[in-house]
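ingest -> fold -> write
write: protein_1
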Amino acid sequence: MTGAELERIARDVVGCRACPRLVGWREQVARERIARFAEQRYWGKPVPGFGDPRARVLIVGLAPAAHGGNRTGRIFTGDRSGDFLFAGLHRTGFANQPTSVSRQDGLRLRGAYVAAVNRCAPPGNRPTPSERDRCLPFLEREIAALADLRVAVALGAFAWDGVLRAVAALGEPRVTPKPRFGHGAVADLGPVRLLGCFHPSQQNTFTGKLTPPMLDEVLRTARALSR
């Protein structure tokens, strides 16, 4: 049932047109493209989560990148953030290969599922609160469908807040005071533990705010907490 439900969620994600601003932006980017991808056909639709239906670890990002997931159709695929993330997932045993360039590249996740708070690439990488709230039910459904889920890794403060909201919407009591995001921070939300990690954006990885050893430590902690 878990895999079948995740497939239904994915179909619903791909067919969503609930946010006019995001629909217009993602489709404009897909039409106009950029020079280095000018010959490629962009996905240009909302991007579903993917991974192991028996995952005990859920990794949550902000949204697809305009020329990453919005181009390839798979979250964190085809951009620098994804390169950094999947290399770490491979080093820590969650992925069968360290690279992710397309939906047909053979990447498989083991014990992990990757999703995002928002499923459309937003202008300036900034969804509005109403856009976040319209999209959150997809994350709620994924959390409910992942029957073995024990840990959610939030890549950045936006994802941290999104997971808190999604878990509360599923009927779990809100944790008070509200847990604050931090790299390596852990919050017990009842059915899952929430683990914070700096987002693998170039802004963080190029400046050394997030390094490969730091990412690996978070992912190893996630595995340990999920047992």
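write: protein_2
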Amino acid sequence: MQHGKCAYCEKRDEQAKWRDAEHYRPKGHYWWLAWTWENLLFACVDCNRDCKRDQFPLVDPSARLAPEAMPPGDERPLLIDPYAPEGDPRAEIVFRRERVQGRERWKPYGTTPGGSETIRVCGLDRSGLIDLYNKHVRDFVRPALAQFETVANSEDARAIIEAWSRLCRRLDAPGQEFRALSRHAVDALAPRDLRARYRLTW
């Protein structure tokens, strides 16, 4: 279901023996949900064991579920549930381009309290991930965008729209790593006037 990617950072983990069955609501606090399907996710070791551990911040800690009560109750989690039917994590966490000592860097920022807490709890701004984000934009997003811009120089409207569609399908395919980063990078890097002229949207 997750295409072999971590539910939190979207990193693909090729070594199955290191994959963790992550409990969205930690089993240490919510022992009665330990085997509940809706509470289980795949998470990489870095997000799960090294960062999140048993953290589960709430808007109001006094509203935590009573033992054996089923979620959500009155709980309002600050940790984004990547598979909740409502909401879109991409609206709560955005990737922004920065310059650090003259070098481009992509970093996640929360646009909501839940987005900010999810970044903090899961360590989505840890240095190893920042390196992977930068590599992803450099080696995957920018070359794909360059191919699109080559077609865009032709000023052939039909070819441009088809090339844009191919770009979006390639970067936003379910099995791709860092889909949210790809979208935000393209939003920042693709010429806005060109996108407006041909009405190019995701």
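write: annotation protein_2
The chain has a mean pLDDT of 92.
DSSP finds seven helices and four strands in the chain.
pipeline exit 0
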